[in-house]
């Protein structure tokens, strides 16, 4: 008769202040939930989680948990896609966006691990994105070009650690006043629309930090992504766009164009900063996206 299952925890050591204490608590929580003690696997500067997750899969892991920020979650999720082995999200980062959208605890290791171990597995969608001729990335929550990527790239790590997501807003006033870039957007092969944008986002789910539900109807398991092109002018325009976003009046207005989609192609008039689940990935002039329906099992 086989013994209790041992979850693998892929963790970012930069997010863990006392590894020994965390290991003790992890063992206790696993034992209380009827699991074996966790196998701890720290990320490195060369492997942000994908390689060690792939090894856990080949070793026959029953569950792989990601302990860290959105980047760690994305790396582990990408390696688990289409394997049938579930992901457990133990959010300890700035945004913890997938944990928020799954209704899981975040920034609370004990509660997060207990929720995962006592939860049940279900499939969710992943997004796939390729910038120019670069590699295809997976994303669990959001990818984009423009202002969002500029703010992510400009956030100072020490401020992120101290302030959390508001650190991204520092220095935003100058960026809001910039004119933007030309865009051509094709959704599901339909007739393209063109214009001038300041930001183009593609969401797998809609809840963002600060309690902003950018796309209330978006679900991680609805089989589609949500493309949003923001075209405000200046700070006043951004104020209007923000008001329309938080009051849910987005559809059919020139400031925010919103379309559900399975595939999409965005072309910009010059190279624009890009990001994937909050991680800057350089600048590009094209963004190709597609939904990978039901690709990832999660325990929640």
UniProtKB/TrEMBL annotation:
One of its GO terms (biological process) is phospholipid biosynthetic process. Its cofactor is Mg(2+). Gene3D superfamilies: 2.60.200.40, Probable inorganic polyphosphate/atp-NAD kinase, domain 1. Residues 2-133 form the DAGKc domain. Pfam families: DAGK_cat, YegS_C. InterPro entries: ATP-NAD_kinase_N (IPR017438), Diacylglycerol_kinase_cat_dom (IPR001206), Lipid_Phosphate_FormReg (IPR050187), NAD/diacylglycerol_kinase_sf (IPR016064), YegS/DAGK_C (IPR045540). Its EC number is 2.7.1.107. One of its GO terms (molecular function) is ATP-dependent diacylglycerol kinase activity. Transmembrane segments: none annotated. It is an enzyme of class 2 (transferase). Keywords: ATP-binding, Kinase, Lipid biosynthesis, Lipid metabolism, Nucleotide-binding, Phospholipid biosynthesis, Phospholipid metabolism, Transferase. Belongs to the diacylglycerol/lipid kinase family. This is Diacylglycerol kinase. It comes from Acidipropionibacterium virtanenii.
